[in-house]
Amino acid sequence: MAISDIKEFAHLTEADVEAIGRELDAIRRDIEDGRGERDAGYIRGTIRFQRMLELVGRAALVGSKRRPLWWFGAVALGVAKIVENMEIGHNVMHGQWDWMNDPEIHSSTWEWDMVGVSAHWQHTHNHLHHKYTNILGLDDDIGYGTIRVTRDEPWNPGHLANLFWNTLLTVFFEWGVGLQSVSLSDKKIAEIEDVAQREQAKKRRRESIGKIRRQLTKDYVLFPALTGKAFRKTLTANALANVIRNIWSNAVIFCGHFPDGAEKFTQTDVENETQGQWYLRQMLGSANFDAGRVLGFLSGHLSHQIEHHIFPDLPSNHYHEIAAKVRALCEKYDLPYTTGSFAKQYFLTWRTIAKLSLPDRFLKATSDNAPETSSELRFRVAGEPAKPQIDPVTGVRQGLKSAYESTKRKARRAAARARRAASAVEHRFA
Known about the structure:
Blueprint: H1 6-9, H2 14-34, H3 37-60, H4 67-93, H5 118-129, H6 162-171, H7 173-178, H8 186-190, H9 195-226, H10 231-257, H11 275-285, H12 293-298, H13 305-310, H14 319-332, H15 342-355, E1 389-390, E2 397-398, H16 400-428
Antiparallel strand pairs: 1-2
């Protein structure tokens, strides 16, 4: 099962958890007190860069009958869409720049360049996903309702298509995100018993259809028409640009939520969760990937997904400095800081999706000790809850990170013993 007692799982006392909360609150105050013109200049400069890149890409598509210009225009436009969605739209709509009081760069006014309505995304993402991160039954982002990413979800034959569904979601990611909270079916809307909720669902559908119509017109009618005889070439280039953006956005999001070490949680005590417990859940339920300045920028700084989940409304250009403090905090309390190369984290997400397409009887681990799914039961000895320890020799705290390393060592030793035993049997009967 998923984690039901986060303090026990993390090998922390209640006092430890609240102390972590106070230290993270202090980090928040430091960043908030230091925001200023330099940060405002950063986001305004990013918006100028994105718009210039989009203009260059669209200008190149005027001559898109020439293959080099077609490729240049499509890629430039694809990168412009990535920057608009990841570093600008996503972060602006989190309220990271609301402190500037600029009506053009505000979470209440920004409408991003994709088929989803910004306000709909803010509801499912800001108000549900970030509040209930990786809580089974509350966070719809766990597999997006189509993909099995945890052993806590019972297997069914439809999961055999896990890899197929994930490929579709990757290519058409903007549609998955845009329609996540929208019901287009009259039948489903009619089944909603509450009158107010039913009217809200109808309103969301109207808004969604309007946004889809505008987006398709812009990308596949208006801008191609502006290039005259290159209409068809521009249309296909625009489609490729959207696919480039979709694949990259999906990869970044999945790397932050589904590699090994990004934990899942039950609904136990969620209503009574303290700020310190919420912080701890964000730290344990998210994962980073290593990135330099360019890769970090193109990911919307979600290479620091842990820091983003702790402080979703702080400016993204501060995540790098926040990361050093969060890592130090993890070392202090012997907590894992889940990160790795982009290639490694992305591979682990696909590996999990591939494994969990199979029935549980073909899987070795359980929902208590699998690489992608764990629980506090994993560390219990003779039924006794795990507790933080202090090494009597070194005086160093031994918590969750040490417990993980200990179980890995035990697993390696057990595997070595099994190999030796098998070798001895083979040698005996040779």
